[in-house]
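Deliverable D5.2: sample structural annotation.
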Amino acid sequence: MAEIAFSDIKLINKIPVIKKAAILGAGVMGAQIAAHFANAGIPALLFDLPAEGKDKSATATAAIKALAKQKPEPLAIGRLSKLITPCNYDDDLDKLDDCDLIIEVIAERADWKIDLYKKLVPHLNENTILASNTSGISIELLAEGVPDQFKDQFLGIHFFNPPRYMPLVEIIGHPGTRADVMDNVEAFLVSTLGKGVVRAKDTTNFIANRIGVFSILVTLYHAERLGINFETVDELTGAKIGRPKSATLRTADVVGLDTLRHVINGVVDNLKDDPWSDLFKVPAWMDTLVENGALGSKTRKGVYKKEGKDILVFEPKDGSYRKRKVKIPGKVEKAVKDFKNPDRLANLRGINDPHAEFLWCIHRDAMHYCAHLLEDIADNARDIDMAIRWGFGWKQGPFEIWQSAGWNKVADMIKEDIAAGKTPCDLPLPNWVSEIDAVHNEEGSWSASANAYKAPSSLDVYQRQRWPESVVGAKKPEQKTIFENDACHFWLTDDDIGVISFKTKMHTISDPVLDSLNQALDISEKQLRGMVIWHPDAPFSAGADLKSFMPVAMKSMLPGNNGLDELLAKFQATLCRLRKSNVPVVSGVQGLTLGGGCEMMMQTDRAVVALESYIGLVEVGVGLIPAASGCMEFARRASIAAKGGDVFEGIKNAFEVIGMGKVATSAHQAKDFGFLRETDIIVMNKDEVLHTALAQVRALDAANYRPQPELPITAAGRGAIANIKAAMTNMHAGQFISDYDMEIGVKVAEALCGGDVDTGTPLTEEWYLRKEREGFRSLIKNLKTHKRVKHMLDTGKPLRN
């Protein structure tokens, strides 16, 4: 039989393996990059200069310890810090010989970086990839200092801060970087670290910082020109226009005014020939604040500072802090709120008001700048839009905003302003702008350098993204609709597995959603191999739809009305049916997964969960208990884990999680809390959740799937309830919980323990489900619960009364 050469074997969707990495530089950024490698289960060496004293790695050790105190948390769960090893350059360079990837994250000095590379080389293996996390130094310049044998394996890998949470990573090659190195690094970053990768050209500040910093500077320029105060700038440049809630000045405080000033100075020094260079200057007020030590959030004083309950804002005119004053004309508010109206920009431009002019100008100049830069800094327009979305948190990138408002119409408005001398730069729009009708279409995104549309990357790793993030105008993934209504869409990506997606706000669970789930299960059991519950966007589910649920609950207080009990029983039966169905049902989870959404996930045969999923049973926050099978499922899992022994340990942990309304801040923590089983799967990239969920359905089906038989649940009983009450009494005495918290806690304990029965009594699932409903019904009648529900609906925050 003829042998097949290894080179003839085509590897499909094979992700390059990075078994061990090294991060050089234990500053905040370096330590957090190491933490994110640990989140992915990859051991990382964290290097820094040797410290004085007995422990030369003390600097790196301190940086690792500091991770536990940082907010937001760099580590998905604290114990992952054990995957990070502190090192120093005197003693530990030999440990680099088995590292697959080394990322340098030291100060932005080219000479220091090059000196370090030369010290590393004798300790590297021939396949080691060497990278710099520089935010703007030329990769070609740095490559000149890399010894010849590693030049083709050297590139830029630029993470955005904080590395765990910001999706963007820019990768930048130099003329000698091997194509396979670029491809392998991109695939690793996308799938193993869960990142959104953009390939940037080797220009100053690359893509995101070049445009992002310009956007900040042009915002400050027009605010000063038009007399818009700081707090109004933030009111106008945050969520209202599809940017982060922290907007402009609050973001500056979070980043650090000293850091932002350093970045701006870098732009000033390196972009002196930029046609917009007159805008590239540090505002005098920023110099004043930095020199006075008011650096932003890290010093608790910057553009904003808090005094008591008041948040004050810096006033540049006299250097004082004053109360905030925001007053935006109604006609401007109306135009801003009309976010999806394609005429929104034109309407703003037509309003004779400085606030409207400000908004039009910051959009106009960003679009003008991006059009000018496209050929030089990026391969195509999609890379610019995704870089700004992933790196700066915009809902749409500059070109998407332009296209959504009418490509040719907006181009004409920009041209008119340039001709009238209204723009800070009189450079005309590039010719290509007038040669196309849209920058994104189903063919791809416009490349100014190629004078053609470029399709998205065809790397194998992107075949794992069944429904990737896309830009305005891009081709949508193919799907075959089985049925669709106002509540749900049941569809196929493959021909034999159904996917059900909710259409409700925040994917809440309403009565029509329950009907659709049952309809989808009917079809799946008759015609399909299985079913996935998944939505193209987060969250997975914010739980039961309280607005539609509460009227049923209120009517149930009338004599003889059983509507609430019937609705709860239907909710429970539908979710439990997910586990008892004759075909495998898998949940694909990302983002918030709360209350009934968590209970639904727990009833599926397997959950595939993105790392950034925030899971919890939070019913106590609205004065209720989980009553859609959550208490029963925790009791069932505790009974299985006990294997005939004492179930109290599992019940105690469940009570702490439910009674305190704990929300896991990562998928790893959700496993610790008991929301996820060991068999549930965590993926780093949210865009791979559907791919992996479909694969799990196939695996379960291939194993001749049968639903597990229902077994009796061993009750913790009245003894466990007494122990829990005793613990709550101590908390109540210490004023950690209120009288009503005590009452709710007792109901949780009874639902978890099976009520007033002997310890060890075997009970049915229906017994526990009935206890859930009883506890829920008794609490829903209390006015304190009504106040908690109203407060949650009004403010989105829990009330402890």
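Annotation notes: The radius of gyration is 29 Å. The longest helix spans residues 354-377.
The annotation will be released with the project's public dataset once the embargo ends.
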